[in-house]
Structure formats: structure tokens, C-alpha cells
Amino acid sequence: MTDLSSDLHWAPGWQIREAIMTRRVSATEVATRFIERIEALDRGLHAFFTLSADVALGQARAIDRRIDRGEPVGALAGVPVSIKDQFWTKGIRTTSGSHIYADHVPEEDSLHVARVKAADGLIIGKTATPEFGTFWRTAGRVAPECVNPWDSRRTSGGSSGGAAASVAAGFGPLALGSDSGGSIRLPSAMCGVLGVLPSNGRVPNHGSFGSTLFLSRVGPISRDVRDAGTLLQLLARPSVDDPLCRLDEPPDYLSGLDDGIAGLRLGWWEDQSISGQVDAAVITAIKKAACGLSSLGANFVDDAVTFDTQGVDEAWRVLDFVDRYAELGESLYTDPLARRKLTPYARERFAWAKRVSGAEYSRAVRRRAEFIRSFEAAFRSCDLVLSPTLGFTAPVIESVGPTQRIPTLVAYTLAVNLAGFAAASIPCGFVGGMPIGLQVIAPPNQEALVLRAARAFEQAWPWVERKPAI
Q: Is position 202 within any domain?
């Protein structure tokens, strides 16, 4: 058990809950300690748009009273959980990183926030996101750019950059993020934490700004695999509010967490078409980490995994940009007053989506279907496919433009969203003092297998021992 008296902010959520249940610490003390840490240290990171101190303390006091009376409490009782600011939070400002919604306070919770509250998780605050989650840096007009806890000159990634930075900085053990092309996994890799992408439809979508039909997923970011599995278990139940979600109950993500990976067939995917645009030292380090899994009893297949990615970036771009435009962008872009308030990158994206034809959208849907078949073929000989999460460390902010899109950045993540598969970015080391991430990919509805692999890696090579000096 972590020494909670001195190291509370680095303890996993499940340990915090155990300490609260055994009265070693109160939920109110937990909330107070995390609020104080965020107030003291986040002014240099900008991981949070809004700190919901009063809400978290009110929840904590109610949990303490229920425990004192011997009443049951939820799976996250007293555990601080940060919420990406794209998700609605009743009574708490929700901006989605947009100046247009700078003072917006929803009258209802998103489905995901409601489930966190039902499990007695403490809503500690709203983490930073680029406008409507449409950029790979967490920069916009609501607050200063969220920077990387390991090096403030560098980006924290996007669009769940605030979520990943908050976990990496010890501002809370769990964060709720979203991902349509890498927005959970890329910030997690850049900030040295675990980010889980559920497969398409496994977690319902309801109650957020800027989701898409085929690509958007909601998942946990954490430092601990068990914490991630606990939150995913709550999120993954079906809901009538999302007509596209799976209707079957999710498997038990925690019962087999320690079963190991002995006998699993692993494939290695390395996109040779971008070899000149990535850092060879990063790829080598990630591959070395991946190969270490063979020492845990897993077996690598003889042939490297390859995917036909021709036209995949364009198909993803059409589906993502147009769906966001249809859901939200059209009403804003066609309003001259609102359009002037948009960030340059959001305005540019909506303008591009407006010009896409129905025929182009239809071709993108077909290319997605073809690509799903190619992904399925690779898993006939593999249980899991491993790859880099991205081929370089977090870029220095001043080295990239304010609207610049970098296809190489999302080369390994975007394809998984398009195929609808499950994945996670696992912290697997450092290059030049910056974190790097190993991506583990599994077929749809095999999130338990992804978590098992992450847990095996976590036990063999613990990643929480190094912490950023903030």
C-alpha cells in the first residue's frame, strides 16, 4: 500500500478507495489534497479549464456520511476523476474549448459523467481540450495551451491533452477522455500514462460536443491498469440513448486481469512508408519494449503485419470532418458571428467539410469497409498486434504551426479508429527524457485482452516509478 500520508497524489484510485473504506483517510481529505495540489501546480501546465472544488467536496462529504452510517458506496467511492471538457456536466461549466461556449453550463450530465457520479467518483474538474476536440495540440481561446508535464516547451498532445497531463502530473488517478483518431492514445504516449480506446460501439456516446458516427470513442486515461479497467467497466454498459452502441453486456474486465499473456500470438506492425518521417531511436526503443513481451510467454508470429493504408487518411478525414460538421459545425459556421469566434483550425476544418460531396462521403464509407476487412485478416494469425503509438516524442510547441495537421502523427492511431478495433497506449520507456508509448491492438469487444496485456507489461516493467518534476 502506498504511503498515503505523503504520496496520496501518486496512489492508484483503487488504493485510495480502499483507504477511504477502511477509514485510513476520509473522502473529504482526499478531495481537499487534490484540489490544493491542482491549485498550486496547474498554473504552469493549464491541464484544467475549470476546477470543480465545491462539487467534489460536496460529493466527498456525502460519501463520508454514508460510510459512517454503514451504507454501500460505489466502485469509485472517493476517487477523483477529471472530465474532458467536451462532456456535459450538470451545473459545471462545459466549454469544449470554444470561446462560443465559454460560459455554457449544461442542465444535464453526459451519460459518462452520470455513470462516474453513480459510482461515487469525485468530479474534480474539467480538463483542457482544443475546440470541439478538433486539433492534435490542446490549444484554443478558452485558456492558455496545455503543456507537457515532462517538458513545458512541448505539447501535451490532443485532443485529450488536459486529461493526460492531469494524470501524469498527479492531479488525479483517473481521467475521462475521447478519441476519434488518436486523441486518448497520443496524449497518453506523450505524457507517459495509460490510455485505452474501446472498440466501436462498446461505450455509448451521449452528451458531448463534437462526436462522430463511425470514429468517436470514450475511454479512460490512468497510471494504473486496474483503475482503467474499473472505469471502463462502468462506461461500457449499453444505453438506449445511443442507437449505434453495442447492446450486449460487456465482459468482466477485472476478473482476468492477472491471467498473463502466455501463449498469445503477437504481431508487429511498423509502417515503412513513413520511416523517413519518424525518429528511428523512438521506433527502436518501442520495438525493444514490444519484444520483451515474449519473455512473458507470448509468441511473435514470423511475418510482420502489414496493412494497405492507401487512402485511409483521406477516408478518415472525410468521415470525421463531415460528421462533426453535420452535428455541430454547420450551425456555427453558417452564423457569421459564431464563425468569427472559432479558432483558425476549427474554422478551416468546417470550411473543408462544407465542400465535401455526397459521392466523396460514400467513397469514404466504402474505403472504411474495405479497410476493416484488411484489419480482420491480420488477426487470423494474431491475437494482438503491437505497434508504436507514434514515431517520435512530444513535439516542441514552437516547431509547429497553429493549424498544421501532421498525418505522420496519427499514422498508427487513426487506422485503429477507422477499423473499429480496440487499443491502448502503454508507457514503455523514455527517449531523450520524454515518454514513449507502445500501442496494443485487439479485435472488437476484446478490451479485456488489451487490459491483460497492459497489466502483464505493468507488472514486468512498472511505469509509475518515474514522475515529472513539476
A: yes
State yes or no: is 84 an active-site residue.
yes
User: How buried is residue 244: exposed, middle or buried, by Cβ count under 10 Å (0-12/13-18/19+)?
Assistant: exposed
The residue annotated as part of the active site, out of 166, 183, 188, 208, is: 183
Q: How far is CA 167 from the centre of its chain?
A: 11
CB 28 within 8 A of CB 60: yes
The cell 449505434 sits on which residue?
244
H or E stretch at 165: helix 161-168
Q: How many helices (H) and strands (E) does the chain have?
A: 16, 13
- Whether the CB-CB separation of 94 and 104 falls below 8 Å is answered with yes
Distance (Å, rounded) from C-alpha 87 to C-alpha 96? 8
Catalytic status, residue 183: yes
Q: Which of 52, 84, 208, 211 is catalytic?
A: 84
**Number of domains present in the structure of the chain:** 1
Residue 469 falls within a domain, yes or no? Answer: no
At residue 5, the pLDDT reads 63
CATH code of the domain in which 85 resides:
3.90.1300.10
Q: Which of 110, 159, 180, 222 is catalytic?
A: 159
Which portions of the chain are predicted below pLDDT 70? 1-3, 5-6
Domain boundaries, position 142: 4-460
Alpha carbons 340 and 79: distance in angstroms, whole number:
40
Is 73 among the domain residues? yes
Distance CA 381, CA 303 (A): 10
Does 466 reside within a domain?
Answer: no
DSSP conformational letter for 396: B
